[in-house]
Design goal:
It contains four helices and five strands, in the order E-H-E-H-E-H-E-E-H. It is of the alpha/beta class. It has a single domain, classed as Response regulator (Rossmann fold, 3-Layer(aba) Sandwich). It has a five-stranded parallel β-sheet, sandwiched between helices. Helix 2 packs parallel to helix 3. The longest helix has 13 residues. The N and C termini lie close together (about 10 Å).
Length: about 120
Amino acid sequence: MDGLNRKTIEIVDNHIQSAISISNFLEFKGFRTVQAYNPKDAVAMAKEEDPDLIILDWNLNGPSGESVAKALPKKKIIMTIPEMDKFRKERNVIAVVPKPVDNLVLFEEVKKALKIK
């Protein structure tokens, strides 16, 4: 991807190692990434960085990923979730990826979300 047109993806996960792993993979694929590890920072960072897409863990410490999705209704979100039966989809959640995250599956969802071939 052209460095001037790099899409920014915010990764939100309270498991720092998971966020770093996803971030490293997506940066290798040419995206710019930013990370947040709790709901408050996630919302603040989304407002500051204006990412093109957010990859959001459903199970955050404190408020759930659902609360972050509700706080950012105009943002495209891919939700990562360990238990699909507990999930209630918010309007701006455009895809759901099961945890543990398979980076190739996630990458396909990112390309769909950002309309990248």
